[in-house]
Design a protein that fits this description.
It comes from Kiloniella antarctica. This is HD domain-containing protein. The protein is mainly alpha-helical and 279 residues long. The protein has helices spanning 2-6, 21-24, 39-62, 69-78, 119-130, 135-142, 164-175, 189-198, 201-222, 230-240, 245-254, 259-271, and strands spanning 9-10, 15-16, 87-89, 94-96, 104-105, 117-118, 154-155, 161-162. 51% of the residues lie in helices and 6% in strands. α9 (201-222) crosses α10 (230-240) and α11 (245-254) crosses α12 (259-271).
Length: 279
């Protein structure tokens, strides 16, 4: 796990990323959850802390004190590893990916909740397969995107198989290896912690993330920029890498859902960000 971040390289797709990518990469390719420089690292810290909270619950409520904490941390740290190739295009104000990056498909007809395949998931699973990672680590990382109870395998309206096991088959084809398949009778409790923790995306993406980008772009308009301009996008990167979308939403909520109150804070960050800088 440490090697994959210290020297991020896809041996499957022959791609190398900057060793500093974790400090600069976002967690999404477009405005949404953690869409700012460093957002990927923040996202990983969040999901790991949430999962460790679940482990503490297992201990306090059920007396389970031998859970594999290292596995939980490693599988969550790696689940979005391939996003180190999400690069900022300053000129257009967008995120670009390498030409070799797989496209995404599946999950678009409402059959599978987590049915999408390919994209960053396929890069991670293929790399773990190629590097002969322990199966429990591979499955733990995949469980972040596919619930190991509900999403083992479904067939979409086009007759294509989607879900956990099909994702393993897809990744194995990229890696040129044999595809392991999840056995429903041998599921580890630690894998479900990935599903539980990353499942917070509905708030972080559609509420905190979307609202934060809306507010900042509104401030950009007040400053004379177009809402969807590269300048507005760069302004969002600047603000959100200093005060998070979660924090902005809490300020909005505490101000009785006042948009003007949160825009005032955004304006203060833009005017003088010294108090928000990390030394």
């Amino acid at each position: 796990m440490l090697d994959m971040y210290a020297t991020p390289e896809s041996t499957v797709f022959n791609g190398k990323a900057s060793a500093d990518a974790l400090r600069t990469a976002p967690a999404t390719g477009g405005p949404g959850h953690h869409h700012y420089p460093g957002g990927l690292a923040v996202h990983l810290v969040e999901v790991i802390e949430i999962a460790l909270g679940w482990l503490n619950t297992f201990d306090q409520v059920h007396g389970i004190r031998n859970s594999d904490r290292d596995l939980v941390i490693a599988q969550l740290a790696l689940h979005d590893w391939s996003k180190v190739w999400y690069n900022w295009d300053v000129k257009s104000g967008t995120v670009i990916k390498p030409e070799w990056f797989p496209g995404s498909w599946g999950g678009k007809d409402g059959v599978a909740k987590w049915g999408w395949m390919g994209e960053h998931g396929a890069v991670v699973y293929a790399e773990l397969l190629k590097r002969k990672a322990p199966e429990k680590l591979l499955f733990g990382a995949a469980a972040t995107h596919f619930d190991p109870h509900w999403d083992i395998e479904v067939t979409n309206k086009d007759g294509k198989a989607e879900g956990f096991n099909p994702a393993m088959k897809e990744a194995a084809e990229y890696a040129g290896t044999k595809a392991p398949q999840l056995n429903p009778d041998k599921r580890m409790a630690e894998w479900f912690l990935s599903s539980y923790s990353d499942g917070s995306w509905s708030f972080s993406h559609y509420v905190a993330g979307k609202f934060a980008h809306k507010w900042i772009r509104s401030v950009a308009v007040d400053l004379g920029y177009k809402e969807e301009s590269p300048e507005a996008a760069r302004l969002a990167w600047f603000v959100l890498s200093r005060i998070s979308d979660f924090k902005l939403y809490k300020i909005y909520q505490d101000a009785d859902f006042s948009e003007e109150a949160v825009k005032e804070v955004i304006g203060a960050v833009i005017a003088n960000s010294a108090a928000y800088e990390v030394k």
